[in-house]
Write a structure and sequence with these properties.
Elements (H helix, E strand, L loop, with lengths): L5 H5 L10 E2 L6 E2 L5 H5 L24 E2 L6 E2 L2
Antiparallel strand pairs: 1-2, 3-4
């Protein structure tokens, strides 16, 4: 039976920082389907809509909160 030292196990684990997007409306986070080189560097094209809520305004926060149960606008 071979016992691996902790140093040997950590050699295979690497950490990378990649670009991802977050919808300011629904809070959904996603990684675009592009090459790995583009994920690590500058993003050339930003998405048009949020893949979850389908809003084209995913980059801007809501101005007023909408209560889903009573359907009235709060914060005016």
């Amino acid at each position: 039976m071979v016992i691996l030292k902790p140093l040997m196990v950590t050699m295979y684990i690497i950490k990378k920082t990649i670009n991802a997007f977050k919808c300011q409306r629904c809070g959904h986070e996603w990684i675009p389907r592009v090459s790995m080189e583009e994920l690590e560097g500058e993003v050339k094209d930003t998405p048009i809509i949020c893949p979850k809520c389908k809003t084209p305004y995913w980059k801007t926060k809501r101005k007023n909160k909408i209560c889903e149960k009573k359907k009235y606008i709060l914060g005016k």
